[in-house]
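User: quick one, fold this
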Amino acid sequence: MSVSFHDEIMHIISVFTLLPLCLVAVSFFIFSYIYFDTVTLAQNRSDNREIAGVFGDIISIYEKKLHSESFDFDVEELKNDSSMSRYFLSSMIQFMNYQGHSADFYLFDSDFKTVTSSSSMLISFVPPDTGKNWGIANKLNQSPGKVCTAFFHGDFLIGRGIKNGFAIFSVPRDFFDFHVLEKESSVLILNRYNDVCLASSSVFTGSFNSVKSEVLLASRFFKFQKNWYFKTASSVGFNDDRLIIFTFSSIRRMVLALILEGFALLLIIVVTGWLCYSRAMRAANGKMQSIGKIVAALEQVQNGNFKCYMKVEADDEFGMIAESFNMMTESINNLIKKNAEISRETVAAQIRQLESQFNPHFLFNTLELIKYMAKLDSDNVAPIINSLCKLLRYSINIDGNDITLAEDMEHTKNYLSIQKFRFTQRFNYSVKIEESCLDCIVPKLILQPLIENSLQHTLLGGGGKKVLEVEIVAFEKDGKICISVKDNGDGMDSEKLAELGKMLMQETQTSNHLGLYNINRRLVLLHGKKAGFEIESSPGHGTIVTMTFPAIHRNC
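Assistant:
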């Protein structure tokens, strides 16, 4: 369904009044989200990356050290050599001091008894305090030769089983308090069993060193204890060990600020938009009334009413359009009257000209027939001359316009009788006309050219047929009269039939098919697109010419 100009203008005013305000609102929310993302959320992600980097560096450094040649020895040999033990411990202390982690180093034998260490403090993360089936001792026993990690009371332990013993580095909790937990975001570090290893806040932790399930399963943005949080998660580890690092940022204040600012902005947009829209509509409605009058007048002209008058009381371009329109319709109305009179005269002249085009060959052949009949059979000369006189008088009569099919058929029979005299047994015809068609108005001499065409191309044109059969049929259907002339001549191929159809579509006669062209042209002039002219033919099966046009009865 098409949109009217009025609706389109209203749509444009609405869009271009409210669109800038909507763009401002969208821009505000986009900018707010970008600011929110770069300030709050980006800081949270940055903290998470830094913490993951710290643990990743620690694991990488100490894993590489534990796999180095420094630990390619037998603990029992070192245990019995005090000088070698002191040298080895000195090199470990020097290595740890270079890292800046304030770590401690412990070397144990196969029974987890201390061989040497960098700290004099009591060790509680190894048997017998913890037992061999727990903590890092259990991991080292189950993974000989592999580096394992574990948290114990906040200290991060990295160890590896070596020949007849175990080597463990311990990064203290104090280091993580300063480098990991002191972030703007809340930090929570879990092991692969989801046990809490480190936490900067107890908000998200439960009893027995566990994390609250709603926090663990929450999406990136979640609500917890009447507050809104943003969560970032990452993991660091190797082999079967894995640390899960969570950073949380409270976004409640930021969200509330965005909501309040957004509400204030929307209120401003609504008020401003209403003021702009109402002002634009008032300005447009006056113009649209003038446009509506112009459209209404143009619709009347489109429907054929050239006597309409456009009244637009405005001293602007629309007033000038109305004045020009009224002058135009008056001029068109006068031209229509003149053209209608000229067209009537022109069509009548063309029809009279077409009706007067009588085939001279027929007249010449008929006179020749009379000449020979006068010598051979003088008794039949009078009927032939009588039929010819009636036919000529009928063809040149310009007074009669409303010719019925019955009248035209009566004069066509004069033509048929002449041809019957001429060709005798070689020419036969039959007429089947419904009674309701007899008083229908038809063009003069509508049938004679079709019969003449059949004779010309069958008996006179050297056709193969020895006897020509012509059948004339007329009936009325759906308010139209259908007249057809059928012969049993040689017919024509599709190429010639297409050429003939193309010729009939021309407005001027350019071929020797004068009779067919005249009939089709007269039907077009009298009835326009309501008339039809169809030719059916095929080689060896004759030709059927059918005419259809509105059935107009003389007595109606």
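User: anything notable?
Assistant: The longest strand covers residues 227-238.
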